[in-house]
Specification:
Largest sheet: 6 strands, parallel
Order of helices and strands: HHEHEHHEHEEHEEHEHEHEHEHHEHH
Number of helices: 15
Helix content: 40-55%
CATH architecture of the largest domain: 3-Layer(aba) Sandwich
Strand content: 5-15%
């Protein structure tokens, strides 16, 4: 929705609000009394919040400040602790011959350059404290309180981000490349009028319109996601990752293991060993070799137990931490199996048949969140085994089903 009155976007940029208020509309307060009372509450908090922000800035500048960097690139990639999440962004930037610097989003000292003075924070802290009073314009006491508490929690980092981007812009920064969609970070850099490209490293979730940030470019895995986000931003600004399909198919299949390697038939977050064993037996019957692809964030120490439990030969365990698309030319599989994995969307984009291991749990868990239509885009291991056998034996059938999955409504 569009607000009738201006509400600074950083106030509603807390990612936890996506789950708390998904599907709910933020409306404007119509009661002058309620609006005035909450305004008074916020007004009484302004001075304490201002002083507390200054105190924490002093602490951060004392203990976390880093020396000024001489690497002043026009493009900055802000990633996280997992290099696999940056895989597609790095490829795009490097293939485009873009000279970029890189930093970790979650290390506070990265934002505290020694050239950024303590006094430069004062106007930003004051402005952000004044922003808090706009929360009184929002209807609903519970919602107002929730947004206020999260805004007070976030205000320090919002100020730090803004001052960092302001300084970087002064020394030549033109565009920020973000991994995933950190809403508070985007709110800060857009306030400083910097261009922003977002690279999703996995499947995206639904974002209520009032939370959706201003983005110049968005890169996603699937056509479903592109269609969804085209309702929130210009479609021309949304791009699909360009994945290279295998030159040919071999009698191979890949099972995308989950990050949690525990097995259970009851817990939705675990894999079912019964299903994995059933898959292995089925593929042997149709002369398909099964490879096991570990999740990029899997604990290395748990792989030995996994191999013993599933009796996996080392030659069939794919330990590469990059996305499945990076292994396709080697394995050249006919099928990719998985639970609710972004690899299934990648599989379809690679022109490889994606197959859900447990459609019931997948549909239940992602019905209200995922923008990728698992039901229409993937086959069902539990009900489509005859179809899978036919596809493995007949190229025409394979191509027909692949076309159907790609074009189903």
């Amino acid at each position: 929705m569009e607000f009738k009155e201006h509400i600074p976007h950083w106030l509603i940029a807390d990612s936890s609000s996506l789950n708390s208020y998904v599907g709910k509309t933020i409306k404007m307060e119509t009661s002058p009394v309620s609006k005035f009372l909450f305004f008074c509450v916020i007004l009484s908090l302004i001075i304490p919040v201002f002083l507390f922000c200054n105190f924490r800035i002093i602490v951060y500048k004392t203990y976390l400040q880093k020396k000024s960097s001489s690497d002043n690139c026009q493009d900055l990639l802000i990633g996280n602790y997992h290099e696999t999440d940056e895989f597609y962004a790095r490829n795009i930037l490097e293939e485009s011959n873009i000279n970029f610097s890189k930093m970790n989003q979650f290390n506070p000292h990265n934002y505290l350059d020694s050239n950024i003075t303590f006094f430069s924070y004062q106007s930003l802290i004051f402005e952000s404290c004044m922003d808090l009073m706009d929360i009184s314009k929002i209807a609903g006491s519970d919602l107002k309180l929730n947004i206020l508490l999260k805004a007070i929690k976030n205000i320090l980092f919002y100020v730090i981000y803004r001052n960092f981007f302001r300084h970087q812009k002064q020394v030549g920064l033109k565009r920020v490349h973000l991994i995933a969609m950190p809403l508070l970070l985007i709110a800060a850099l857009k306030k400083e009028h910097l261009s922003c490209s977002v690279y999703m490293h996995g499947l995206t979730i639904k974002i209520p319109k009032q939370y959706f940030p201003t983005i110049d470019k968005l890169f996603v895995l699937s056509e479903d996601e592109k269609n969804y986000y085209s309702t929130l931003m210009p479609k021309n600004n949304i791009q699909l990752y360009k994945l290279k399909s295998p030159a040919k198919y071999k009698n191979n299949a890949v099972l995308l293991l989950r990050q949690n390697l525990n097995f259970s038939n009851d817990n939705e977050d675990f894999m079912s060993i019964v299903d994995v064993q059933a898959l292995s037996s089925f593929l042997k019957e149709i002369n398909i070799d099964l490879y096991y692809k570990i999740h990029p964030k899997t604990d290395e120490n748990k792989l030995h137990q996994l191999k013993e439990t599933l009796k996996i030969n080392d030659a069939y365990l794919m330990k590469d931490r990059t996305p499945i698309s990076n292994n396709i030319e080697i394995i050249q599989p006919k099928f990719i199996f998985g639970w609710f994995s972004s690899g299934l969307a990648e599989s379809l984009s690679l022109n490889i048949l994606p197959v859900m291991m447990d459609p019931i749990k997948t549909s239940k868990k992602l019905k209200h969140f995922s923008n990728f239509n698992y039901k229409n885009r993937c086959l069902n291991f539990k009900t489509d085994q005859l179809l899978l056998k036919n596809c493995s034996e007949h190229d025409d059938k394979y191509k027909k089903i692949l076309h159907k999955l790609k074009n189903s409504v």
